[in-house]
Amino acid sequence: MKRRAFLKRTLVSGWGLPWIGAALPRAAAGAEEHGPTSAGGGPLKVHPANGRYFATADDRAVYLTGSHTWNNFQDMSAGAESSPFDFDAYLEFLNRRGHNFIRLWRWELTRWNVGSTPEYTRGTDVLTTAPHPWARTGPGTAADGAPKFDLDRFDGDYFDRLRRRVQAARDRGIYVSIMLFEGWGLQHLPQAWRQHPFHPENNVQGMDGDAGGDGRGIGVHTLRSTQVLRVQEAYVRKVIDTVHDLDNVLYEIINEAGVYSKEWQYHWIRFIHAYEGEKGRRHPVGMTFMYSRDARQRGKNADLFQSPADWISPNPDAADGYNYRTNPPPADGTKVILSDTDHLWGIGGNPDWVWRSFLRGHNPLFMDPYDNRVLGKAPPESWEPIRKAMGIAASVAQGLDLAAAISSEDIASSKYCLAEPGRRYLVYVPEGEAVEVDLTAAAGRLAVLWVHPLTDERRTAETVEGGGRRRFSLPWKGPAALLIRK
Q1: pLDDT band for position 4 (50/70/90)?
Q2: Domain count, the chain
Q3: Which residues contact 67 (CB under 8 A, 6 or more apart)?
Q4: Is the pLDDT of residue 424 over 80?
Q5: Are residues 388 and 443 in the same domain?
Q6: Domain holding 450: CATH number?
Q7: CB 133 within 8 A of CB 234
Q8: How is the chain split among helix, strand and coil, in percent rounded to 5?
Q9: In this structure, are residues 165 and 190 in contact, taking their beta carbons and an 8 Å threshold?
Q10: Sequence-distant (≥ 6) Cβ neighbours of residue 158 within 8 angstroms
Q11: Shared-domain flag, residues 127 and 43
Q12: Could you report the per-residue pLDDT of 90-136, keeping only the tens digit for each?
């Protein structure tokens, strides 16, 4: 019922205009019938005709966008205080804003010091994270005061929670990227390795995941130790076995390990593809930016594009005057790009970035402080404009045939146009009072609709004749989105 109500809200949020009303019900009905709620519809795949987007089993293009936050899977508590995350309220938060995608975060450390991240928070708490993939049986006590891990036994509660949360997201029409590993913490938090399950004093096997390493533990994200790989492979197989039958699943190898992890990440992408291939159905696997504060340990976007991953999340850098923050390069379809503020700002982003990314063929994601219980300095409501812009862009995307859409810098004078040449044109105007659009390929009369990218105000304009370049005056001072349809 909640899923149907969400689709109804999306359907009537301004798309009931005559000339576009015929397109949206088909797209919305497709989401109902072929989205993550469908039984046996199959997982997403890279669209066979347009690699900028994923597709459902029947080749309908899917535009992904959404907010994600650090404790949306494992609970993070300060001291003796229990702080369970209200996942149902979080899903409702996403539905109200029209989002359809999250990263489901995994945190490898058992404890971490929020006060060591002053760039992201005013807090000083030491947070305890739970649950973890392995059973805490002892004998003996780990660094966080709880029983040591038995790396040969899984914690059933962890995997039960994983399945329940992916199912709950599915029932709300939300796709979930399951983060398998986390690398930022080991690199950048003080004493992080001491709080890792693979530290020899934290597991009953006495396994030292950093044997022969530098004392930081980052070796667990390399191919150096066959013993570590054996434990990790068992864990990854268990994750896949837990959710393999669910259609709304994607995978992310690791969050922000350094370039030392590159071949290890490539290994896991191939491992998941092969293991799922044995089961007869595959889910998309992603590789995100290899970040490090140490520039020498930082990866390059080329490493992502050259990987065997199905989707990627780049850092800001791009060649030829482009920048994934301010002037994203047009996606060329070699990878599905989930452009994530987490890897562009850390905590940051704005509505203008959402629309620039959307018009360049990307799928924008927002690293959301949510309620500031983990990280975040600004008031949570201050991020509402970017959240709303993502939902408005998603509703506009429903009225397009993304399978046929290409990003062009030549069609509109603003240089932001997502076009189905001759049929539909979506133009973004970041600023200014007018825009010129080349409609040479579109013969006949064309309908015109203006959409405010921040408020969702929509205004129809007089029809226009195709067959040449046409100038359009904005009904308000920019920004604005312009939809032109045959």
Answers
A1: very low
A2: 2
A3: 93, 94, 97, 99, 102, 365, 366, 367, 368, 370, 387, 390
A4: yes
A5: no
A6: 2.60.40
A7: no
A8: 30, 25, 45
A9: no
A10: 131, 132, 133
A11: yes
A12: 999 999 999 999 999 999 999 999 999 999 998 899 999 999 999 99
Mean pLDDT confidence for 308-330 = 96
Q: Are 108 and 60 contained in the same domain?
A: yes
The predicted pLDDT at position 63 comes to 98
Do residue 391 and residue 426 come from a single domain? no
- Same domain for 437 and 386: no
Q: 35-49, 63-77, 127-141, 328-342: which has the minimum mean pLDDT? A: 35-49
250 by DSSP, 3-state: which? strand
Residue holding tokens 């996942």?
A: 87
Query: Which residue segment(s) compose the domain that 104 sits in?
Result: 2-404
With 70 as the cut, is the pLDDT of residue 213 above it?
A: yes
| Interval 369-396: pLDDT, tens | 999 999 999 999 999 999 999 999 999 9
CB 138 within 8 A of CB 147: yes
Q: Are residues 330 and 421 in the same domain?
A: no
Out of 388, 404, 420, pick the residue that ends a domain.
Answer: 404
Query: Which residue type is seen at 455?
Result: T
Of 187, 34, 16, 54, the closest CA to residue 108 belongs to 187
pTM to 2 decimal places:
0.92
DSSP-based three-state secondary structure for 136: strand
The residue length of the chain stands at 486
38, 162, 260, 283 from 177: Cα distances, Å: 18, 11, 23, 10
Both 444 and 373 in one domain: the answer is no
What is the C-alpha to C-alpha distance for residues 294 and 410, in angstroms, rounded to an integer? 39
Distance CA 428, CA 425 (A): 10
Task: Write out the two tokens for 229.
Answer: 């790989």
